[in-house]
Amino acid sequence: MGSERLPLRVWARRSGLKAWLYLLPALLILGVFQIYPVFKSFLMGFYTKFDYLTDTVYEWGLDNFVNLLHDADFALAIQNTCILVVLAAPLSIAVSLVFAVLLNSNIRLRRVFQSIYFLPFVTSMVAVSIAWSWMLNKDFGLVNSVLKLFGISKVAWLTTPDMTIPILVVLAVWKGLGYRVIILLAGLQGIDRRYYAAARVDGARGLSRFFHITIPMLKPTLVFLSITTVIDVFKTFDEVYVMYSNDPGPLKSGLTIVYYIFTKFYRHWEFASAAAASFVLFLMIFAITLLQFLFTSRSRREGRR
Amino acid sequence: MSTKLRRCLVRAATYLILVAGAAFILLPFVWMILTSLKPSAEVLLMPPKWLPSRIQWENYVEAFESAPFLRYFCNSVIVTVLITTGELITTILAAFAFSQLRFRGREVLFLLLVATMMVPGEILVIPNFVTLAKLGWVDTYKALALPWCASVFSIFLLRQQFSSIPEDFHKAARVDGCKDLRYLFTVLVPMSRPTVVSIALLKIINSWNSYLWPLIATNTNDMRTLPVGLAFFSTEAGVKYNTLMAFSLMIILPTLVVYLFTQKYIIRGVSNTGLKG
Amino acid sequence: MNIRLEHVSKHFKNTVAVDDLSVVIEEGMLICLLGPSGCGKSTTLSMVAGLEPPTQGEIYFGDRPMAHIPVEDRDIGMVFQNYALYPHMTVLENIMFPLKMRRVPRAQRRQRAEEMGEMLQLTELLRRKPGQLSGGQQQRVAIARALVKEPQILLLDEPFSNLDARLRIELREDIRALQKKLGITTVFVTHDQEEAMSISDRILLMRDGRVQQYATPEEMYRRPTNQFTAGFLGNPPINFVPCTYDGEIVTVEGAPDWRLPLDRLRPCREGIAGKAVLGIRPEDLYVAERGFCTAAITAIQPLGKEVYLKLAAGPHQLTACLSWDHDYRVGEELPLAVKQLHLFPARPEEGGGAHGL
Asked: Residue ranges per domain, chain B?
C-alpha cells in the first residue's frame, strides 16, 4: 500500500473530511436557501435604492422601516393578524382538546374519527378554500340555505367586513383540528394511568380529574401546541388570497401580515419594504418562540422542585 | 340504576359530539363532491338541491380540458418527486454524518441548524426569489424544487432514529467490510424504514399542496403547479362551480389516496413532531 | 493463526483503558478475556478486531503486523452482545451478508450459508426474520454469520449475557464443541468467571487495563499469582485473612494462636516479608480433630449436596464449603483443618479486600 497516501488519509480522518462530504448537499441547500436569506432579508430591509436583477445596492437607509411605521395598511395587517391569533388560537386548542379527550376515552371507531379529523391536513388549502367560498356564497351557498331552515335571513358572508375574521377563525379550527388532536392524543397517552387510579382512590370525580391531572400533565404538549398554533395562524395567507379572489377581503378586513408582505412584493415589486416587513414578522415569531422557551424551561425547573 | 343511566347519557353525548365534529370536517368535502357531479342547471339553485338528478361525469372532463390541467398535473408531479427525492438524499446523508461520524464541531453545527427551525418559511421567499432571479432560474423546475430539497426538521427526526440503533450494528457491518455509504443504505436506512417513509410522505403532501412559493417562482402558465393553476382557474371559471369543484377534487384526490393507504406512517410522523417541544 | 499483542496500550481522553499488554494467543485455542466491567477486556477485543486502533504497541496475526490493516481485511468473524442481526433481513440473508460483502457468487453464497445454518441447526429457521426467533436461536444465527466466511479468528463479545442460565450453559458447550471441530483461534470476552473456567483453554484475567494472570483455568484457580486473581475466581469466594509472614512463620492478625500447617502453604511469590494476606478457599476447609483453630457457626446455607457455613474464628469471618454429612447447628463449635493455604503480599491500597463478597 502506498506509504505516501497514508498521511493524506490520516489528515482526512482527523479533520473529519468524510463527515463534511456527507453534510455538503444538505448544508449547501440549507445555507443558500434557508440560512443566508435570514441575513439577506434583514439587510434588504435597509436597501433604499437597488436593482434586484443585478443585486446592486445604490443606497442604504432606514426608510423602509420608517415607512412601515407610517403605513396604515401595515398597522391594519398587524391588527387583523393579532385579532385573528387571539381568537383562533385558544379556540382551536380548546376544541381540539375536547375532541382529543373524548377520543382518548374508550371509544369505538376511534381510528375512523381520527382519520376524518385529519383529512384537511393532507388536502390542498387552495382547493379547500374554494370549496368554503362556494359554501359561503350569498345567493346559492349551502350555509345560507341551512340558516334559512332556522328562519335566519341571508348573510353576505364574503362581502361583509365583520364576517371576515370569524370565517378565518372557523377555517383555522377546521384546518388544524386533526393535527392538534393527534399531538394531544400522543400527550394524553403519555400520562401514566396510575395517576388516574390514585386520584380515584382520593375521591376525585371526572371533571376534577381532568383539571387536576390531565391539564397539568399535558402542559408541555399544550405549550408546544399553543406555540405552533399561534405561529400557524400568524402566517395565514393562502385561504384569504383564494377565498376573496386575490383580494384581502372586504375593506381589507382579511389583510394579514403575510398578505401585506406578499402584496408589497408580488403586486408592487417593493422588495425592500417587503423584506423589512418580513423581518418584522420574523422578529414577532422569534419573540413567541423565545417566550415558549422561557415558559417551558421555567415550568421544567418548577417540576424538578 | 341512575349511575348506569348517567353513564349511558355520557356515552351518547360523546358520540354525538364526535359525529358532529366529523360532519363539520367532512361537510366541505361532501359538498364539493355533490356539486362536482351536478348538471350546471342544478348548481345555482336556492334552496340548493342536495343530490344531483343525474350524475354528470362530464364536469370532470370539462375541468380536465378547460385548463391545461394535464400540464399543471405533470408539473406538480415533477416538482413533488424532485423535492421528495432531493430531501431524502440530503436528509439521509446529513443524518448519517450527525449520528455516526465523529468530527469537530458536530454538536455546535447541529444546534445551529436546529435553531434555524424557527425561521418562518415566509421570510425566505423574497431573498430566495432574488437569488434565483440572479441565477436566471425563475420559472424553472429548479426554482420550484431546489429551495425545499433539504429540511432541518427531517434531519433532526432521522438523526434521532439513527442514533437509536445500537453501535454494535455498525461494528458488525465493519467486520464484514460493509461501511459508510454501503452500511448507510443496506443497514441503517432499511432499519429506519418507518421514519424514512413518514418523512417522505409528509414531504410529498407538503410539496403537492404548497401554494405561495410556486405562485411566486413561476410566471408562465406552463410552469404552474396544480394549486396555482386552480387559483387562476377559479377566477376564470366564474359561476361554473361544478367544473371548479371537479378541478379541486382532482387536486385533492392524489393526496387523499396516499393518505388513506399510508395513514399509519403519516400519523406517526406527525405525532413525532409533537415530541420536539 | 496465532495472535500476538506487544506492549499494547489504549488511552481514551483521560483514562488508560489498556496498559502495556503483551500476550500470545496460540493457534486453535479458545481464550477468555475475563475481568470486572471497565477492566479493558472489551477494548482489547476491539483492538484485536481493528475496530479501535491501539494508542501504542503492535498487534500481530501470525507474523503480520495489523497496524494499518482495516477490520474487513483482518479475516475475523465477530459475535456481539446484542447479536446485531439485521432485523430487515431473513436469517438466510443475515448469514449470507458477509459473503455478499466479499462478492462471493450468489449460488455459492447460498450454499455456504445453508451449510452453516445446518451446522448450527438453523435449517428450519432460514426464512424467518430475527425478530421471530428466541434469544438462543438469534445467538446461533449470529455465530453462523460470524463463521460463514471461514475466518481465521473468531471474536465473541459477551455473547451469552442476554440469555437465561440454562441456555447459556447449553450454548457455551455448543460453541466449545464447534470451536474444537473447526480448530479456529477464538477470543471470548466475559465477566462471568464460571463461564470462563468452563470452556476456555486459557484465561487472561484483567483489571484496570493490566493483566493479572494469563494461565489455564486450573492453574489460575489452584495457583493464583495475586490476591485479585484468587478473589475473582471461585464461588463462594476465597477467604482472606490479614497476617504477617517472616519467611517461616505466619502469624494471623488478632489470632496468634492459630497453628497453621505451613507445609501446605504456597506463597504466590518468593520473598514475601512483613504484612501479608492469607487465602483459604472455602472447599479447602474441613472438620478434623486436630484443626488449626475452632470456629463457631453463625449461619448455615444448605445447597443440596453441600452446605456453606459462615464461621466466626476469633476476630475473623470464614466461609466453609462442606459436605452434608452432619447436622450443623448455629452456635456449634467446630475444629477446622485446611488442605491448602495461599499467601499474598498485602496491598495496602486495596485494604486486603477480596473481590465480590
From this structure: 3-58, 67-273
